[in-house]
Every structure is written in C-alpha cells, then in structure tokens.
Amino acid sequence: MGSKHRVIIYGVAGLVLGLLFSLLAAMILGVFTSLGPIGFVRTLLSNLVSRDAWASALPYFVPIAASASSLALAYRAGFITIGAEGQVMLGAVTAYWVMYYVIGHSGIVAIGASLLAAGIAGLIYGGLVGALRVWLGVNEILSSLMLNYVAIGIINYLVAGPWQQGGYTRTAPLLPGMSISLATAVIIVIVLGALLELFLVLTKYGIAIDSVRLARKAAQTYGISVSRTLLMVSLIQGLVAGTGGGILLLQLLRQLRSVGLGGWGYGYMGILAAWLGGLRPIGALAASLLIALLYSMRSMLQLYGVSDSFVLALEAIIVLSVLAFTTLAMRRGER
C-alpha cells in the first residue's frame, strides 16, 4: 500500500471513529434533547452529503485553506510558526485600508492592488518571525503568538478609533463592487495551494525544505543554507496567509469589527488542517474543507438543541482522531 493511500485510509478511519467517540460522549453526557442519538447521527450525516452544507462551508474554507497550505510548507522545514492568525487579520486590515482609504473605488485593479497589499503585509509579518528566529534565535512559536495579539490590538484600535463608523466598534462597510465573489475567492485559494505544492515538488527549494527538517547536518554539508531556507518559508507562509486575509475581507467580512483575544480562529484552524493534510499544501486544502464544514455545522446543530460548547468539543474530538490516525499512517510510511 502506498503512503498516500495509507494516509487517506487512515484519515477516513479516524473520521469514522471520531464520530463514534463523539456520539458516545454525547450519550454519556446526555446533551441530546429532541434529537436523540439516532436523530443526531442522521442530522450529521445528512449535512455531510448536503450541497447546501458544503456551500455554507466555502466562505470559511478560504482563510483556513490559505493558512493551512502555507503552514504546511513552513512545518515541512521545521519552522513551527503559529502566526497565520495574525497574518490573516493584518492582511484583512491592509486590504480594507487600500480599498477604502487609498483607492476608494471598485474595479479589478483596485481589488488586485488590495490583495497584493494584503499579501505584502503578511509577508512582512511572517518575515519578521523568520528574521527573529534566524538572526536572534528567538523561538518562532513564542514570537508568532505575540504578533497575533499585536494584530488583534491593531484591529481593535482602528475600529474603536480613527476608522470607527457610528456608535459601534466597527468600520464602514465596503461599497458595492468593492468585493469578489465566493467562486473567485475559492479559485484563488486553490490556485495558491496548487502553486505551493508545485513549488515543493518540482523545485530545488522543495528538496531544501525537506532536507532542513529531516537531515539538517547533511543539508549543511551539501551547501544548503538552513537560515536562508527558514527565512524563505517564513516569507512565503506570511505572503499566502496575508493574501487569504485580504480575500476574506473582500469576500465575506466587507468591514472590520472589534476582535476578542481568541482572534478570528481561521489561522489556528489552519494549523490543524496543515497537520491533517500530511504537511502537503494540496492535502491541507482538502483538510481545510473538512474543518470548514465542521465549523459551519455549529449553527445547524444548535438549532436542534445541541449546545455550542459541545459542538466545539465534538469538532475537537473528530479533528484529534483524524490527526492521530494520519500521523500514525505517516510514521508507518517512514519505516
């Protein structure tokens, strides 16, 4: 059995067992109301095959997939950043600023400029984490986490200060035409993920990325610069995540609101999707769609009396189960 097929089979097994564990936990805790265990399973499965459920998941898929595909590349190099959350938010802020305050009108050029600016903002943010790691030895997990909170502070300052519109902590919505369609957003993100996959598979830099993580001393012996590779993946990761934030702003949000300390969560969900996808950009895209579907199902399950807290717990159980099984498949493939 090939390693790719093994990961897929183990992932499906993890999904099924995760659903069973969730059902067992729900029965023990007695969280079912009018649904009952059978009704819960029927509702869950009907949404898994529902076209409307998948369509409702696509807006969340966009920022999660942009984060996940870029993080997969960084993690393959052993650069364990968790800064996609802040990069997505900073990309959204930059896209809003360019579109609303700098350009001020709609059009393809304006949309392209705002997305480019969002990507550059994310690139700078990601590059800062890489520079701190390469030149000062600062742990990227800590520095990227702190920068996530800086991004939250920037948004909250702007929506409660110079960009505030009316009596609420939010900005003015973008004018009609200052947006992109959901289909366009999905296509852009898929293209970005595909380009990252081709970059990993077809270029010498992909070999360098894997070498730095798996055999660092051997890579240095053959002239591969660890510092240059880590800085490269930090820049690429920030660029794609920031672009995802710009797409999120132009497609779904269309205005900025105050943010809690947990942020928007898309970058953190991207971390899960990156690992679920086997640290491959294309695999991360597929995993992002699954996580987006689970996320979008929260409101549906709440309508049937299942609490929001348990829905979050259900999602965590399923994700952890799939993650455990796919990790086991990857380790068996390395033997």
Radius of gyration: 20 Å
Number of strands: 0
State the helicity in percent bands. over 70%
Order of helices and strands: HHHHHHHHHHHHH
Structural class: mainly alpha
Kindly report the average pLDDT value.
84
Separation of the first and last Cα atoms: 13 Å
Whole-number count of domains: 1
By DSSP (H or I, 4+ residues per run), the number of helices equals 13
Unreliable spans are: none
- Share of β-strand residues: under 5%
Structure description:
The protein has one domain (62-305): ABC transporter involved in vitamin B12 uptake, BtuC (Orthogonal Bundle). It contains 13 helices and no strands. The chain is mostly helical and 335 residues long. The longest helix is centred in the middle third of the chain and has 29 residues, at 108-136. Helix content is 78%, strand content 0%.
What's the short story on this structure?
By secondary structure, this protein is mainly alpha-helical. It has helices at 3-29, 36-48, 51-76, 84-103, 108-136, 140-159, 182-202, 204-214, 216-221, 226-253, 266-276, 281-303, 308-334.
